[in-house]
Amino acid sequence: MTSSTPKIEVRDLHKAFGPKEVLTGLNLDVGVGESVVVIGGSGTGKSVLIKCIIGLLKPDSGSIRIDGVETIGMRGKDREEVLKKFGMLFQGAALFDSINVWQNVAFALIQSQGMDHNKAKGIALEKMAQVGLGPEVGELSPAELSGGMQKRVGLARAIATQPQIIFFDEPTTGLDPIMGDVINDLIVESVRDLGATALSITHDMASARKIADRIAMIYEGKIIWAGPVREIDSSGSDHVDQFINGRAEGPIKMAVRG
Amino acid sequence: MHEFLHPIRFLKTVGRVFFAFLGATGKLAIFTFTSLMHALTPPYYPRLIGQQMISVGYFSLPVVGLTAVFTGMVLALQSYTGFSRFSAESAIPNVVVLSITRELGPVLAGLMVAGRVGAAMAAEIGTMRVTEQIDALVTLSTNPQKYLVAPRLIAGLAMLPLLVLVGDIIGVFGGYIVSVYKLGFNPSTYIINTWNFFQVDDLVSGLIKASVFGFIVTLLGCYNGFYSKGGAQGVGAATTMAVVSASILILCSDYFLTELLFTK
After folding, report:
1. Across the interface, which of A94, A108, A167 has its CB nearest the CB of B132?
2. Which residues in chain B are closer than 8 Å to A83, comparing Cβ atoms?
3. What is the pLDDT, as a whole number, of residue B238?
4. What is the pLDDT of residue B90?
5. Looking at the partner chain, which of B132, B138, B140 has a beta carbon nearest the beta carbon of A107?
């Protein structure tokens, strides 16, 4: 791997569900230590892209390289090794409701790394403190937490193993604007502290502007524009302009039954 | 001619259903094989296996016990009604112990556990699927089949025979209660007759059946939950499917197991 090798390199990615083609030859690079946010409307393939990269979905064709190594078709131990590089914050936090909060945060440390419970608990409480949660929260069940707190716990779980790459799936969805901004700040801080590479998907422009070094817009299964966050307002793309300004009129037609 | 009765359309429909059935069977076979492989290879999750054993075994005891005691009681009462017509009341202990250990104990326990445990497993794993908790397991480098399915399969295989063993004792006791306190049998004669008619082979065959039924219930509970989709409705459908398919498969496999174990 050379220093110019992207951390994540996606080439000509195709994925269809039956007759519906979701990804239609998508290309995307994410550099080492870079934070890229993919924006786009609902149903444009943002989540499918992230799930293909992490291996939750199998693409129909194309290439996904992590640190220059092809991951499509990878199985068993090799796949497990690649997965150890990842952390992910899910849209609904996806906390395990059969265990308490600190056990959620320490899950990968105990189950995957085989760490001693007491040591793992110490690290979990430390990560929880980083996202603004006190040790008393550790003993609660995920069902007892508010949406914002669940997102914080999800973030603490995502960073607990100090991953090299973190995915954020709609990190501010379902949160009020203030809590959304708190989560954005925590994401920026956590990614910076870890020196991790981040790939986020969102349709919340405030969030995208805050956490991105670079923004890429997905439309009809392809990246139609990508550039530094400061250039988003002068992208020269009608699609991007319509999306970031939230206009109903423009080249993007939403499927609305009338 | 009705559109459906058109020969080509009819064949197309039959073909589609047939291939869908083959696809579903293949998917279940692969799921079964990979789950068994995960159950046999490390890492093991002893704490989870223990939790599932308590859930499948201990917490099913009341429902299986109640089913067994009433089944034994009804069996004694019905047998008496029939056998008294040709003065064969003395065969009641035989009928009760034979029916309970060979057939009713394992089958009824299997069906009750399918309703209690299979449904709960499908609902729990199904909810984990639709709330992305199973995806989260993958991102945390934990194989969901190894973590969620293997402990449940092991618990089902191990605990159903124990449940049935307890159920057999309770069922025979139910028959004893009715025979002694309602039908006027001599208690010691009833017990001696029961013991004389009792055969270890009958008990063992029932326990083998129980183990297979435990496997079926947990496998189908996990399978239907694991592949559920579509939110709350999908989880509901998975739960129903888990109970219905497990119940049918228990009754079908019961016939083949009986043939395998008793046909000489």
Report:
1. A94
2. 138-139, 141
3. 96
4. 87
5. B140
pLDDT at B243 over 70: yes
Report pLDDT for A177: 87
B132, B138, B141: residue with CB nearest A92: B132
Model confidence over A71-84: pLDDT tens digits?
998 888 888 889 99
Domain boundaries of chain B, sorted by first residue: 45-262
* Residues of chain A positioned with their CB less than 8 A from the CB of B128: 96
CA distance B153 to chain A (A): 18
Pick the CATH number of A1-76+201-249 from 3.40.50.2000, 3.40.50.300, 3.40.47.10, 3.40.50.2300: 3.40.50.300
A111 touches chain B (CB under 8 A): yes
- Model confidence pLDDT, tens digit, residues A196-239: 999 999 989 999 999 999 999 999 999 999 999 999 999 888 99
SS (H, E, C) chain B: CCHHHCHHHHHHHHHHHHHHHHHHHHHHHHHHHHHHHHHHCCCCCHHHHHHHHHHHCHHHHHHHHHHHHHHHHHHHHHHHHHHHHHCCHHHHHHHHHHHHHHHHHHHHHHHHHHHHHHHHHHHHHHHHHHCCHHHHHHHCCCCHHHHHHHHHHHHHHHHHHHHHHHHHHHHHHHHHHHHHHCCCCCHHHHHHHHHHHCCHHHHHHHHHHHHHHHHHHHHHHHHHHHCCCCHHHHHHHHHHHHHHHHHHHHHHHHHHHHHHHHCC
Query: What are the start-end ranges of the H helices in chain A?
Result: 46-54, 76-83, 101-105, 107, 117-130, 147-159, 177-194, 205-211, 238-245
Give B41-54 pLDDT, tens digit per residue.
988 899 999 999 99
Residue B230: predicted pLDDT: 86
Cis amide leading into A228 (omega within 30) = no
Instruction: Say whether residue B138 is in contact with chain A using an 8 A CB cutoff.
Output: yes
